[in-house]
Amino acid sequence: NAGVTQTPKFQVLKTGQSMTLQCAQDMNHEYMSWYRQDPGMGLRLIHYSVGAGITDQGEVPNGYNVSRSTTEDFPLRLLSAAPSQTSVYFCASKGDGNQPQHFGDGTRLSIL
Amino acid sequence: GESVGLHLPTLSVQEGDNSIINCAYSNSASDYFIWYKQESGKGPQFIIDIRSNMDKRQGQRVTVLLNKTVKHLSLQIAATQPGDSAVYFCAENGATDSWGKLQFGAGTQVVVTP
User: Which pLDDT tens digit goes with each residue over B17-47?
Assistant: First the structure.
C-alpha cells in the first residue's frame, strides 16, 4: 500500500492564481483531512471529511475549498492564492473511531 | 480555549541516553492522545498512542505516560539514536467527536549528539 500520496511536492504560485493540491489514500479510510504547517506552529486543521460527499471546516478554512467525490481522493483548492497561504500542506487519513491519522509527505507551497 | 502544548521547544540528548519529551493538555475531556515524529521534509509519522483509561503504554524503545490528574503526557525514548533526531508532536483527539479533529502542540526539536 502507498498510504497517503500528495502531489505536487513543491509549487510556486503568483498572487491571485488558483491551484489544486491532490491527496489520495489507498487504505479505504473514511476520514480525511488537510492541515497547514507554519514555522514555530503546530499543524492547523483546514478542512476535513468524514466520508464521500461530506466535508466540514476546520480551524483555518478561509481561502480554501474541498470536495470529496470518492473515498480515495480529497483535493484542496486555492481559488485565489495569497502570500499568507505560503506554507507546507499535509493531508491525512484515518479509520473509524480513535485511530491515529496517517500523513502524506506534504506539499510545499510558495505564493509570490 | 482548550489547547495542547509542549514544555520544551528543543531537547539536546547524548546518543545512548534516554530522552523525555513532555506535553501538557488543558481539555479535561480528552480521551485519546498520540505522539508523532516528523523528520525534515517528511510528514508526521505515528509513534504511539494512548487512551485515557491507561496510564502507560510501551512500544519499541518508546513509552508514553499519561497523568490525567495534572493533564500531562510524556514520551520516553530509550537509548536515543541519531535517527531519533526529529521534531516530536503530541496531539489530542477530542472526546466529543469520535472522528477526531487532532489538535497539535508546536513540537519539540530533539537533537541527538554523539
Answer: 999 999 998 788 888 899 999 998 899 999 9
Shortest Cα–Cα distance, B45 to chain A (Å):
7
pLDDT in tens, A60-91: 999 999 999 999 999 999 999 999 999 999 99
Reference B38, options B112, B91, B114, B107; nearest CA is B107
Instruction: Show the cell assigned to A50.
Output: 468524514
* Grid coordinates given for B108: 519539540
- Put simply, whether A71 touches B (Cβ < 8 Å) is no
Contacts of A7 in chain B (CB under 8 A): none
Inter-CA distances, A27 with A62, A64, A96, B48, Å: 29, 25, 12, 19
